[in-house]
Amino acid sequence: MIAKNNKKTIRSWAFFDWANSAYNLVITSTIFPAYYTIITTTKEHGDKVEFFGRTFVNTSLSNYALSFAYLIMAFALPMLSSIADRRGNKKSFMKFFTYVGGAACIGLYFFKLDTLEMGIILFAIAAMGYIGGVLFSNSYLPEIATEEHQDRVSAQGFSYGYIGSVLLQLICFLFVLKPEWFGITDASFPPRLSFLLVGVWWIGFSQIPFSALPNGTPQHDKVKTNILKDGFSELSKVWAQVKQMKVLKGFLVSFFFYSMGVQTIMLAAAGFAEKTLKLGTAKLIAVILIIQLVAIPGAMLMSFLAKKIGNINVLIMVVVVWIGCCVFGYYITNEYQFYSLAAIVGLIMGGIQSLSRSTYSKYLPVDTKDSTSFFSFYDVTEKLAIVIGLFSFAYIEDLTGNIRYSIIALASFFIVGLVLLVLLRKNQHKESLKL
């Protein structure tokens, strides 16, 4: 058993966000998308690339790859969480996914245009490592903090993530902007070195939570059955419980829709900016750094507002802002408009992630023993949302040849999520809940 609200345990747990957020910032948000877009845009073929004999728009290919990675993990997570719950070894799974993801990032050091297939595969594997690690990290939240502290602890994790990732980004920033300081003449070396540093950072700082968090408690009372059946059986059991909990079900459905928009924007924004505005790596990194720095107080602000007016009211407000961001993003024509939009997105990005995680945790049954299975259900919901969001974004660009049209689909996802959150608030009042 873990002593809840222990500062040392919480701090160690938050360092997992510190470690793996470097992947999220450098690989999905800044240096990799810019580097990838630049090397795959050529005079001969424009933005078209060949991947195992098939031709794709470059940004569509990377979004398809991410979508595929999330789809694989959406099916794998139920089995893995079931095994972790039964054997009480979820920290072992955290380690496995961390090492796989970190090693894939290190492998991206060798990524150039002539190794496109290898690069895309490693890009997808790194995403799988990140996804798996986050699931098992999230499942510790109700075990390390009591309900009244979960908003704050969740926000602390995201804040650590932003700070840690910004520190590494600044280091990478020096290599990318001032290669001559280090005697670097190969233009591809600084970004490739950044990928390597992400892997080392991710694996290295993860040792802090690995040394402090327990593995879990084996559940010997569970009947041993086929792992595949058992995994989805656990998911079915969670769904059966969720169906009996009207408010929790309502929250998950709304979360599913607005996550299609949030996660797709976070994963595809850099490619959009590079393709439509030609910002270049240096400006793109600077913008994302601003987003990360603004996101730290943003996550704390959302936690503070949740105490004052309730989680659902804050989520409604934030989703409205996201809809406005989509409309604004569709009409963006210059870099200064993008900077303004980036500042707004930064403020609400961490807040909606942190608050969604803690809201779900609060809705869980107080006496639940299968926190990993419940958070597996939460993660599967989010991953399927990302699959649909990314696939829609990529497919619309492929179909129309204009990446701006993809933003319209994201706005529609947010609108559906907003309507469902408003309905959820009404159901909450009926059941006298104050979240």
Automatic annotation (TrEMBL):
What Gene3D superfamilies does the record tag this protein with? MFS general substrate transporter like domains
SUPFAM superfamilies listed in its UniProt record:
MFS general substrate transporter (SSF103473)
TM helices/strands, residue ranges: 21-41, 61-84, 96-112, 118-136, 157-177, 193-213, 251-272, 284-305, 312-332, 338-356, 377-396, 402-424
Domain spans labelled Major facilitator superfamily (MFS) profile: 247-435
Report the membrane topology from the UniProt record: Multi-pass membrane protein
- What does the entry list under GO cellular component? endomembrane system
User: Would the keyword Repeat be found if you checked this record's keyword annotation?
Assistant: no
| The entry's keywords | Membrane, Transmembrane, Transmembrane helix, Transport
Would you say which domain of life the source belongs to?
Bacteria
Please provide an example of a Pfam family that matches this protein in its UniProt record: ATG22
- One GO MF term attached to the UniProt entry: transmembrane transporter activity
Q: Which PROSITE patterns match?
A: MFS (PS50850)
**Location within or outside the cell:** Endomembrane system
- Classification via InterPro entries: Atg22-like, ATG22/LtaA_families, MFS_dom, MFS_trans_sf
Keyword Cell inner membrane part of the UniProt annotation: no
Tell me the PANTHER family matching this sequence: AUTOPHAGY-RELATED PROTEIN 22
Q: What is this protein called?
A: MFS transporter
